[in-house]
């Protein structure tokens, strides 16, 4: 959907509200990786994260008229939906029952790790493999944090959201965001040092 | 400043979320407090590690799945819209349309009913005509469902 690359999220939303699913498609292309990462970190599951991504976009598409650009950006609005959907899945009885009765190992998607953000050069296979190992080790440590700490930290460190934006997504105060991120860092450092 | 407050400020410092005077104050504290200096270094390393292991999806198949579903959704939203138009038609008009339609089917076998339009004559080859009317078929179906 390269022809819409120059448009801002807001311009895309205006067109999508007018009924253009192609403009909404550009928003999907733009944010899916971020949305997947956030859903994956909350649910801890690739398959559930995929479901959350689909349901969240569908919900966003159906409720575009309710999106208020004076209150938040599309990105924070979408992430609010994603977090709520992820929490709903994690706390559902159906999920707990499935986890309890199933020893099913789910497949992991093919993940890629960003090159040097400045040069955007692709990484060689060896570096990719080493990053993949580091990712799994970090993932394991992150899973030991309470969801709120983990989400706040990742929204800041990986998705570069401001404290204000995180407060909006998580529906808490900015000072709570500060505390959550600080506690998450402290705990992670303890876990790494152990 | 209490030590714990200072460490919380260091977390803000790592994120660049302190304003000018507070940055200077925090940096001054780092020069005189080895504990906080160590905490700062660790938080910076942790932040770098988190940024380094930020994965991307290797292909766009998930985005494609989403777009297919959105497309399906906007099509079915179209049907819903048509249906809501239908709701605006007065009920007596719907009854009249139905009465004419059902009257047209009276006494006809299933194949005859389906064959009323020229375009559907090829259905003859697909549906076996046992001489049953549409009502017979529905009654049979109801009985077999109840018998389950
Ligand atoms: Zn100190």
Provide an overview of this structure:
By secondary structure, chain A is an all-alpha fold. Chain A is built from nine helices and one strand, in the order H-H-H-H-H-E-H-H-H-H. Chain B is an all-alpha fold and 148 residues long. Chain B folds into three domains: 3-52, no CATH class; 86-111, no CATH class; 117-147, no CATH class. Chain B contains seven helices and one strand, in the order H-H-H-E-H-H-H-H. Chain B has helices at residues 3-14, 20-32, 34-52, 61-87, 91-105, 110-114, 134-146, and one strand at 55-57. In chain B, helix 1 (3-14) packs parallel to helix 3 and helix 2 packs across helix 3. The longest helix of chain B is centred in the middle third of the chain and has 27 residues, at 61-87. Chain B is elongated and about 90 Å long. Residues 79-88 and 116-132 of chain B have low confidence and may be disordered. Chain A binds chain B through residues 19, 21, 24-25, 28-29, 32-33, 36-37, 50, 53-54, 57-58, 61-62, 109-114, 131, 134-135, 138, 153-154, 156-158, 162-163, 178-179, 181-182, 185-186, 188-189, 192, and chain B through 7-8, 11-12, 14-15, 17, 39, 42-43, 46-47, 49-60, 62-63, 65-67, 69-71, 73-74. Strand 1 of chain A pairs antiparallel with strand 1 of chain B, so a sheet runs across the interface. Residues 3, 6, 29, 33, 35-36 of chain B line the site of zinc ion. Zinc ion binds next to helix 1 and helix 3 of chain B.
Topology:
The complex is a heterodimer of chains A (194) and B (148).
Chain A lengths: L8 H9 L3 H23 L2 H17 L11 H18 L1 H9 L9 E3 L11 H18 L4 H11 L5 H8 L3 H20 L1
Chain B lengths: L2 H12 L5 H13 L1 H19 L2 E3 L3 H27 L3 H15 L4 H5 L19 H13 L2
Helix pairs in contact in B: 1-3, 2-3
The structure holds zinc ion.
Which terms would index this structure?
heterodimer; A: 194 residues; mainly alpha; Rna Polymerase Sigma Factor, Chain: A; 69% helix; globular; B: 148 residues; 3 domains
Concise overview:
The complex is a heterodimer of chains A (194) and B (148). Chain A is an all-alpha fold.
């Amino acid at each position: 959907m390269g022809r819409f690359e120059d448009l801002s999220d807001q311009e895309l939303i205006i067109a999508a509200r007018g009924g253009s699913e192609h403009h909404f498609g550009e928003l999907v292309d733009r944010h899916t990786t971020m949305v997947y990462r956030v859903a994956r970190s909350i649910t801890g599951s690739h398959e559930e994260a995929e479901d959350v991504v689909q349901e969240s976009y569908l919900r966003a598409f159906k409720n575009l008229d309710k999106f208020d650009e004076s209150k938040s950006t599309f990105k924070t609005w979408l992430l609010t939906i994603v977090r709520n959907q992820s929490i709903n899945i994690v706390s559902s009885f159906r999920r707990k029952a499935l986890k309890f009765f199933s020893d099913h190992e789910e497949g992991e998607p093919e993940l890629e790790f960003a090159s040097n953000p400045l040069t955007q050069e692709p990484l060689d296979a060896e570096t990719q493999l080493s990053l993949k190992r580091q990712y799994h080790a970090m993932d394991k440590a992150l899973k030991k944090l309470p969801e709120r700490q983990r989400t706040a930290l990742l929204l800041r460190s990986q998705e570069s959201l401001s404290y204000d934006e995180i407060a909006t997504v998580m529906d808490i105060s900015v000072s709570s965001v500060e505390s959550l991120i600080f506690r998450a860092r402290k705990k992670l450092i303890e876990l790494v040092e152990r | 400043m209490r030590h714990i407050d200072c460490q919380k400020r260091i977390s803000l410092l790592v994120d660049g979320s302190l304003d000018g005077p507070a940055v200077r104050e925090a940096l001054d504290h780092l020069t005189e407090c080895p504990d906080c200096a160590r905490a700062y270094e660790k938080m910076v390393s942790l932040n770098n590690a988190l940024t380094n292991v930020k994965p991307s999806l290797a292909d766009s198949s998930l985005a494609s799945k989403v777009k297919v579903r959105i497309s399906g959704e906007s099509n079915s939203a179209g049907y819903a819209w048509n249906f809501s138009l239908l709701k605006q038609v007065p009920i007596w008009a719907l009854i009249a349309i139905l009465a004419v339609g059902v009257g047209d089917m009276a006494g006809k076998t299933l194949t005859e009913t389906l064959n009323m339009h020229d375009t559907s004559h090829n259905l003859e080859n697909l549906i076996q005509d046992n001489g049953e009317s549409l009502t017979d078929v529905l009654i049979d179906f109801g009985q077999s469902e109840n018998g389950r």
